[in-house]
Amino acid sequence: MKQSEIQELYKVMFTDYPDVVNVEQLSQMLGGISVKTAYRLLKSGAIKSLYVGKRYKIPKLYVLEYLTNLEKSAS
């Protein structure tokens, strides 16, 4: 599967989510991982994010980028 096809698939999968998600939404997007695991991914930089005030804001684009990179590394 080509990268562009993967990105299109993920875009379709996440249509119910806003363009910028919070940590709880991120954990749901990643298959129901724990919020604690989601925080670890953000703190480690595995998923890019913005830190506004005292909260993480994660553009959906960064989630798609993370999943695409995971797919590449699994191939």
3D architecture notes:
This protein is of the alpha+beta class and 75 residues long. The protein has a single domain, classed as Arc Repressor Mutant, subunit A. Helix content is 57%, strand content 13%. It contains four helices and three strands. It has a three-stranded antiparallel sheet with strand order 1-3-2. A hairpin with a 2-residue loop joins strand 2 and strand 3. Helix 1 packs across helix 4 and helix 2 packs across helix 3.
Features:
globular; single chain; Arc Repressor Mutant, subunit A; 57% helix; alpha+beta; 75 residues
Topology summary:
Elements: H1 3-13, E1 20-21, H2 23-29, H3 35-44, E2 50-52, E3 55-59, H4 60-74
Antiparallel strand pairs: 1-3, 2-3
What's the quick description here?
With 75 residues, this protein is an alpha+beta fold. Helices cover 57% and strands 13% of the residues. It has helices at residues 3-13, 23-29, 35-44, 60-74; strands spanning 20-21, 50-52, 55-59.
User: Strand portion, in percent?
Assistant: 5-15%
Strand order of the largest sheet: 1-3-2
Which of globular, elongated, flat, extended, rod-shaped describes the shape?
globular
How many domains, in number, for the residues? 1
> Rg from C-alpha positions?
12 Å
Helix content estimate: 55-70%
What is the averaged pLDDT score? 89
What name does CATH use for the topology?
A: Arc Repressor Mutant, subunit A
What is the H-and-E element order?
HEHHEEH
What is the CATH architecture assignment?
Orthogonal Bundle
Number of strands: 3
Class computed from helices, strands and strand pairing:
alpha+beta
Stretches where pLDDT falls below 50 for ≥5 residues?
Answer: none
Q: What can be said about the biggest beta sheet? A: 3 strands, antiparallel
How many helices? The count is 4
Oligomer: single chain
End-to-end distance: 10 Å
